[in-house]
Specification:
This protein is of the alpha+beta class and 601 residues long. Helices cover 26% and strands 32% of the residues. The strands form 5 sheets. It has an 8-stranded antiparallel sheet, covered by helices on one side.
Length: 601
């Protein structure tokens, strides 16, 4: 059934984490009778088990709503629910490319937070019509008038027509639907032109191949037609097209302005790139869509299979997962301690944890993950610089002229009572104070410049605990700066474990080495021989501890008699242990690599 282009609205829901985006999506689905009552549940668009467990949205999800408006027309509303966490900003920016409007949701009690600002600016840059919605007005601590003023002063968009709603109680939902129809512009496009569609996302299905999520900008597409992907120049025949309800539902065709999915029997994972343009073959459109900017990973970590036979299974799993999440990268690497694995790049620590957990759950892999690091620029005395994302590959210090590390510009919003705590935390983490802005009578915005490596440890959880959960954080990448950095090595049994190496400031290296050695002493299981654990900077050992051996009582059967017999047995045991120490392989548990993340301040 064809829909008039003027009756289509494509919009997304933006906001800070926990401000009620997924709950509002549930109410919109309910109000438009998109799902039967028996199929409704909380956060219905959070389809991944991991999203439901953690209570956060990880992947943007699309759904088609049918809404009979007061003007007598039946409107087709394509809703995209987006994540709110800073690590998934790329997922949000991809969703905006498919929309003409955005609902900006703000908590009536918490007000404008760091990620509210970041997402609002993304929508403004994408030239979307923004509808401000103040949620949770039924809370006793709600302050809608103050929040309206914040939206105008802090975000810089008019809030006189901001809608007051409670997504949980279902208050104000009809007003939102009416505002979407009246304020979000209809999509533009030529229905008779050659097909021009954007690949928003894609997933791999073992039976169907690549399933591409797409937005049609010009033309239409139907099963049986020949299409081509403009970057790869490969042609395929369309097997199925459809919409999201939010489950996949096949349709006879996808027309201009629609958001849906397309299956064309694509088996090569690398041929369906997110951001590519789909067009007809051979009647191609003249110019491809601009697509997405190439995303640069910020955090790097090694992923190794616990069982070395699973290396190829890990490669396949990473390929399939990258199809669904274009914001992480991977390349093969080898570790003396852990064997063959992959160096992976992520957008942040939460992103790294999610990928690790998805690989273990969705593909049944047992993995060892090394401590995260950032991309350093190591300038050599011989000239030029080498990028180093793995501490094990840091050149010898005598060849290094200087090491530069990436800084981030961080934007923290905290209640006035906790300014001191937040500033102290930033200063401890080598932060450079920029300025402070008074947002209203109770909250301030702190702007700092901070080394990215300092955020890799427990910066965000510490900020949350020091501000009783009220602090919010947003960051963007700044410049590189030269710092006095050294490599801290960990030696087990006298041999360096490359996967436990870390790069850090010289003045902290010794303290960190001592802390790490005492932690590893608790974590490494006792074996039949003594295990010395050492922390070293270059050739200098800065800390040492030993894991005591499990000692068998070899003299238990000697009752009385000559003491030399006992001594002989003990000496023989000692010789055996010496041999074992030379060839013995120390088992390092995953907790030892995780210990690198914690700091004791």
């Amino acid at each position: 059934m064809s829909t008039n282009l003027q009756n289509i609205r494509n919009f997304c829901i933006l906001g800070h984490i926990d401000h009620g985006k997924s709950t509002l999506s549930d109410r919109l689905l309910e109000h438009t009778n998109t799902l039967a009552e028996r199929d409704m549940r909380e956060q219905v668009l959070d389809l991944m088990e991991l999203e439901r467990e953690r209570g956060i949205t990880i992947k943007a999800t699309a759904v088609k709503l049918r809404y009979p408006a007061a003007d007598g027309n039946l409107y087709e509303l394509n809703l995209i629910d987006t994540p709110g966490h800073v690590d998934f900003t790329y997922e949000v920016s991809r969703s905006l490319a498919a929309c003409e409007g955005a609902i900006l949701i703000v908590d009536a009690a918490q007000g404008v937070e760091a990620q509210t600002l970041a997402n609002a600016y993304l929508a403004i840059d994408s030239e979307l019509e923004i509808i401000p919605v103040i949620n949770k007005i039924d809370l006793p601590t709600a302050r809608p008038d103050e929040v309206k003023r914040q939206i105008e002063e802090v975000v810089g968009i008019p809030a006189d027509e901001a809608l007051l709603v409670s997504a949980k109680a279902g208050l104000g939902i009809p007003a939102i639907l009416a505002a979407i129809v009246n304020r979000v512009p209809a999509p533009t496009g030529e229905t008779d032109a050659p097909l021009k569609a954007l690949v928003l996302d894609s997933v791999y299905n073992n039976y169907r191949g690549v399933i591409m999520y797409t937005r049609i900008f010009d033309g239409s597409v139907a099963p049986g037609q020949k299409i081509q992907l403009m970057q790869t120049k490969r042609a395929y025949e369309v097997e199925e097209v459809g919409i999201f309800t939010p489950q996949m539902q096949p349709t006879s065709e996808l027309l201009t302005g629609a958001v849906g999915y397309l299956i064309a029997g694509i088996r090569e994972i690398d041929k369906a790139k997110i951001g590519d343009t789909i067009t007809h073959h051979p009647q191609a459109t003249l110019s491809p869509l601009p697509g997405y900017r190439e995303i640069k990973p910020l955090v790097f970590s090694g992923l190794y299979p616990a069982d070395t036979n699973q290396f190829h299974a890990l490669r396949e799993a990473l390929d399939k997962l990258r199809l669904n999440d274009a914001s992480f990268s991977f390349e093969p690497e080898t570790s003396v301690a852990l064997g063959f694995g992959f160096r992976c790049g992520f957008l942040g620590l939460l992103h790294m944890e999610i990928i690790h957990e998805r690989l273990e759950r969705e593909f049944g892999l047992a993995l060892v993950r090394t401590a995260p690091s950032v991309m350093y620029r190591v300038y050599l005395k011989s000239g030029g610089y080498v990028p180093v994302d793995n501490p094990a590959y840091l050149p010898e210090l005598q060849d290094v002229d200087r090491i530069e590390e990436p800084y981030v510009n961080i934007d923290i919003i905290v209640p006035r009572d906790y300014i001191g705590n937040a500033m102290e935390l930033c200063q401890k983490r080598r932060g450079v104070y920029k300025r402070m802005n008074q947002l209203d009578a109770t909250r301030v915005q702190l702007l700092y410049e901070l080394p990215l490596s300092e955020m890799l440890t427990d910066f965000y959880p510490k900020l949350k605990s020091l501000t009783r959960g009220y602090g919010s954080l947003e960051y963007d990448i700044g410049t590189y700066k030269a710092e006095n950095l050294v490599k801290l090595d960990v030696l087990l049994n006298g041999k360096p474990v490359d996967a436990l190496s870390t790069i850090l400031p010289r003045e902290r290296a010794e303290t960190r080495g001592k802390g790490l050695v005492s932690k590893l002493k608790e974590l490494i299981p006792r074996q039949m021989f003594e295990i010395p654990i050492q922390a070293a900077i270059g050739n200098k050992i800065v800390a040492r501890a030993s894991v005591r051996p499990l000692r068998k009582n070899v003299t238990a059967k000697c009752y009385g008699g000559d003491v030399t017999r006992k001594r002989k047995l003990l000496e023989r045991q000692k010789e055996g242990k010496k041999r074992l120490k030379q060839i013995g392989n120390v088992d390092v548990p995953q907790e030892a690599f995780t210990a690198m993340l914690a700091t004791d301040e």
